[in-house]
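Kindly inspect both lines:
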Amino acid sequence: MSNSAPFADPQFDITSSAQLEALFGQPGEASLLKELDYLHPHYRRWIEAAPFLALATAGPEGLDCSPRGDPAGFVDVLDEKTLVIPDRRGNNRIDSLRNLVRDPRLALLFLIPGQGETLRVNGRARISTDPQLLENYAVDGKLPKLLLIVAVEAVFFQCSRAVVRAGLWDAGQHVARGRLPSPGQILSATSQESIDGAAYDSALPERVRSTLY
């Protein structure tokens, strides 16, 4: 696969839904029937088995997609229309949260190690700091700063092709540490060396371990 493809000729740009439908045809029956507006018990089991999700949001400043992870079951299924996601410690950029306070729409993509299929949930979120609710999601006595309470609008599984093509769970394709620029090296370069990259990398494992919650 070339990394230096020529610039695409605009005459071949697709600019309408009609062009897309002519290119791809109609979706299969199964791809439509799998979508529900509530959490079927089977979908609930998938969410309860997922230790990781990607959260996509949109706001006036643009788009954001960020990771969320914890032991499997960290996303609480309150009922067939409601999810609760504790917001754990991060880097305090809060890009997703800034978006959600102005546009509550979100999309979630759940990944389950070893499974090719993923689960997609679309909905709208409230951001809550209700102290009684926060207590329910404490870990090691530490509360999340807030909770995302998600009203589910659409849920369906995504077929395994992308994960299979990527070899995502194939240990033989895992990229060894050291084969890519480290976080410290990246920060050193992007900060014009105002950040000591070697010191950052040296402290990183302990910092992550001690600040998970």
